[in-house]
Amino acid sequence: MTDFNEVHESDIEKLGQLRDYFATHRSLPSYSYMQQLLHIKSKETISKLVARLKLMGFLESAPDKKLSPGKRFFERSLSNNTVQAGAFTASYNEGSDYMTIDEHLVRKPSITELIPVAGDSMKDLGILDRDTVIVEKRPYANLGDIVVAIIDDKFTIKTLGKEKSLFVLIPANKDFEIIRPKEPFIIYGVVTGQFRSY
Amino acid sequence: MTDFNEVHESDIEKLGQLRDYFATHRSLPSYSYMQQLLHIKSKETISKLVARLKLMGFLESAPDKKLSPGKRFFERSLSNNTVQAGAFTASYNEGSDYMTIDEHLVRKPSITELIPVAGDSMKDLGILDRDTVIVEKRPYANLGDIVVAIIDDKFTIKTLGKEKSLFVLIPANKDFEIIRPKEPFIIYGVVTGQFRSY
DNA sequence: GCAATAATCAAACAAACGTTTGTTTTTGAG
DNA sequence: CTCAAAAACAAACGTTTGTTTGATTATTGC
Asked: At the N or C end, where does chain A have fewer CB atoms within 10 A?
């Protein structure tokens, strides 16, 4: 009854394999498949492992009672960068913080959109061709914000600036000119983040 | 026997509900739960629906034979992107509604670590001071890969290159010099992604 | 409107699921 | 080393799964 469910050292390592499996197949393995995967010979052992991971918030149950990833399932370890040579810490709780990339990058999911970048006009600010920017859709921005504006029915990513009383769009690439729209233009949203995959 | 499996008009609509379910729970519902979800009274009907969606590449089977999302599951319909009148976007967008940024950036969770970047030595490749890089921890890399190496007990992010028979570390900033280590150095991991939050 | 075809339903089914139970092995304190 | 507690194992269990089968209802062409 009163199962203490103390955390086992190796649980996190096992969790790692479940994360790998999920990253590959977008699905969690059945208990019998976990036996092969984790080299555990009894389903009861799996059952207890899963119970512990559920308690810790790494796993949970979907409405149909199937096993599904919990919130913490997508946590990533964040190195504190002062770690040095000999320190090959694969351990979970030492010297690192944990965060989920999504929560870190997306603060207002309901108004957030991902937009692929085409072109090099912002390369000096580290926004390259084929990157993806995270955009909060809203029609206003502050000076200095990187915005997605609609100019001539096209999306454009530039820094919002002001010359005298006129708003301008400033590229971050010396080969491009500052855009000085004659008419008021529409701000589609504000860039709040950026990512890239190699 | 010879089941033609012609595509039904409504299949895509049903698929939509499965996508919503998956987006919420990171798991696909069982056939019986799909019955409730899709208002279908027979499991056989579900079975055929799933078969068609599998043929179309929206669903597939994981190694344990469980149902899992296929490649096309995360495609985003074109109509979503053409919302803006006339707005021209490169509309190839890997279903950002259903796939998280995390899943896009992290392929091998168990060996992946996030490392904050300090310094400008890679700025020409769009990796700036205070960015975060996604690193697959492993001691080998290919020429041209961006690697995290350990030099003088410090982490360094550079492109792996070769001069004659010696491996070198190439910065992406003209103010920095190519590092030509006298002794073999350790590769801590390979950079597989990068992100930044404003 | 009627027949042929396809789709859905409903029930029965074996196979696989995860839980439960009792036993064996491992661990760790005295 | 001995013994008690914890963990892992192995087998049996009732459920639930997805498939199969045959009956019923909707479509469609003539």
From this structure: N
Looking at CA atoms only, how far is residue A87 from chain B in angstroms?
10
Which contacts of B152-156 are long-range, i.e. CB under 8 A and separated by 24 or more positions?
Answer: B153/A84, B153/A85, B154/A84, B155/A81, B155/A83, B155/B115, B155/B188, B156/B121
* Structure-token pair, residue A29: 């393995």
Q: What pLDDT score was predicted for residue B95?
A: 52
Nearest CA in chain A to B67: A27
In B4-22, which positions are buried (b, 16+ CB within 10 angstroms) versus exposed (e)?
eeeeeeebeebbeebbebb
Residue B146: is its pLDDT beyond 80?
Answer: yes
- The alpha-carbon gap from B142 to the nearest alpha carbon of chain A, in Å, equals 13
Distance CA B68, CA B119 (A): 42
Q: Distance (Å, rounded) from C-alpha B180 to C-alpha B165?
A: 11
- CB of residue B130 closer than 7 A to nucleic acid strand C? no
A83-137 residue pLDDT tens? 333 333 333 444 568 899 999 999 998 899 998 899 999 999 999 999 999 999 9
Span A26-55, average pLDDT: 96
A-B C-beta contacts closer than 8 Å: 177
pLDDT in tens, B163-176: 999 999 999 999 99
Strand partners, A144: none
Cβ A35 to strand D below 7 Å: no
A23 interaction partners in chain B (CB closer than 8 Å): 103, 106-109
Instruction: For residue B43, give the nucleotide whose C1' atom is nearest its CA.
Output: D18
